[in-house]
Amino acid sequence: MTDQPHQIHRVNIAGVERDLRLFVIKPGVRIAILNILGDTELVHAAAKALAEKVMARQPDYLVTAEAKAIPLAYALSLETGLPYIVLRKSYKPYMGDALKSETLSITTGAPQTLFLDEKDRESITGKRVILLDDVISTGSTLQGMRLIVGKANAEVVGEAAICTEGDRAQWTGVISLEHLPVWVD
Question: Please, which residues have CB within 8 angstroms of residue 7's CB and are 6 or more apart in sequence?
């Protein structure tokens, strides 16, 4: 068995170069996968580059979904001094009267439920929030986050990500550092 070389897409994000491997997500469609988990250099550079743009929206909180964007939320919290909240993918009894909404991720292809802990719900009620993700592709995760923070009576003042992906025109209002194409064969 011979190893086939993987196709890659090179990006420069906030001065940090990475070769992103292309993966087939459905027949005839490939995307470049940005996995920031464990990539401290990239996360730190991205947080520094996003900080001023995010703060221009005058938010009170950062809100992200579990799991890959958590390091970015943490690093951006350090850069800006803003607290962050993580919407969880499973309900735990300590979460109390949690809010929930469903999303469909392009990378998993399956529905996912997001939960806002009762304590965090109380924290963001009446506050201004930035929705934060690592990569925004279809907008499904953003929509799920919007629904939850709306139920909590928080105001979304911006959406931010390291990268947008796909139809660039759809993401003109998103604060981002790089745009990734989608390859259709």
Answer: 21, 22, 30
Q: Which helix (H) or strand (E) holds 52?
A: helix 40-55
Evaluate if residue 105 carries a pLDDT over 80. Answer: no
Work out whether strand 61-65 and strand 84-87 pair parallel, antiparallel, or are unpaired.
parallel
Model-level pTM? 0.88
* d(C-alpha 117, C-alpha 120), whole Å: 5
Q: Any long-range contacts for 51-55 (C-beta under 8 Å, 24+ apart)?
A: 51/76, 51/79, 51/80, 53/160, 53/175, 54/80, 54/82, 54/130, 54/158, 54/160, 54/175, 55/80
**Domain chopping of the chain, boundaries:** 36-178
Q: Which amino acid appears at position 27 of this protein?
A: P
**DSSP bridge pairs for 9:** 20
Q: Does domain 36-178 have CATH number 3.40.50.300?
A: no
Q: 3-state DSSP call for residue 159?
A: strand
